[in-house]
Design a protein that fits this description.
CATH architecture of the largest domain: 3-Layer(aba) Sandwich
Distance between the termini: 60 Å
Number of helices: 15
Number of domains: 3
Amino acid sequence: MELYEIYQSHPYISTDTRSIAKDSIFFALKGENFNGNTFAEKALAAGAAYVVIDEKEYQLNDRCILVKDVLTALQDLAKHHRAQLNIPFIGITGSNGKTTSKELLHAVLSRKYKTLATKGNLNNHIGVPLTILSITNDIEMAIIEMGANHQLEIEFLSNIANPDFGLICNVGKAHLEGMGGFEGVKKTKKELYDHIRTHNGIAFVNADDINLMEMSATVEKKEYFGSNANARVSGRIVSSDPFLSIEIKLKNDAQFTSINSQLVGDYNLNNILAAICIGDYFEVPLSEMIAGIESYAPSNNRSQAVKMGSNDVILDAYNANPSSMSAAIHNFVKLNASNKVMILGDMFEMGEESMREHLAMIELVHQLKFEHVIFVGKDFYACKKYEFQFFETTEEAKDYLSQNKPTSSMILVKGSRGMKLELLTSELNG
């Protein structure tokens, strides 16, 4: 494979001329509003050794490699590179918690192995190939996060990454629009289990999750985690106000061991147990695993606990769907604070279920007797009910908060990334 030989001499991939790595290969990808081929000359001038294009008119010299389709060439190159790598590949997917699980697992495995994990949310048809192509010969373990918003996407990504091990964090009401409802979500996520089964791999399964137990039934090799004492690792919550403290016990251990995390939310118990289960399988010492978990602090608006003036803010504005929002709300109920404020933003990609799911969140908040609630977004606004505050846009909510700044409060900020609720934080420093 000619392109692979070039890659071996220039093992750096660039897709954006604003951040060209010297001596890299620039892949001229196309998007809805841009044609990467038009940046070929600029990429070479910026230091790229080669550019990969799919329009002949941009073939300026022999450093311009003409292919039928740039994206397919990138994916095929990643697939070929993966085939040369004889290291464990762990595939992670799920409706909620993929990134947290990935980061926790990376924190655990890195205590013993040189581990590479998906950066940020590079978990799609472009991000997965880029992650694989960043794996160098000194890497001993790879953790590949795989996201999906339509059916067969996990199957497609699994065929590129070819994971030997698989973890599905959970299945919930996410990307309902592209998946065809909740059953479509289950079918899509199960594609990872199907790949693991047909390639004689091992699945790490939450024994407490009825859906995952059902979906993994045909996988021959499984390792379990959960509350069951027969699982490879079991655990229980000690406290979560606001940070999660748990006790875990490996199958053959006589007693429980404490872990004090920097994570917010009871729902992170399973993410920690998954990381410990996989780490134990790969023989990472328990003391090292605990050190890895306790050192991990979430970032990028993912369940971050932040002190803002007199307020304690739980900033969880990176993603939202009915499953994760319901979990965040129920967790917020348990936190000990005299004055609580919730700011909830629209959940995207709900399709025909959108109005029903947004109304269900309003009803949930009402049933739980929360008084100080701000709903933000067109879908919440269309369902407005009860004496809560409703705003169609984040800017309108920001204007309201500038005049009505909460003080001495615990505040939950939860919504889909597209709502940009983090813009409200300037008004929460009360």
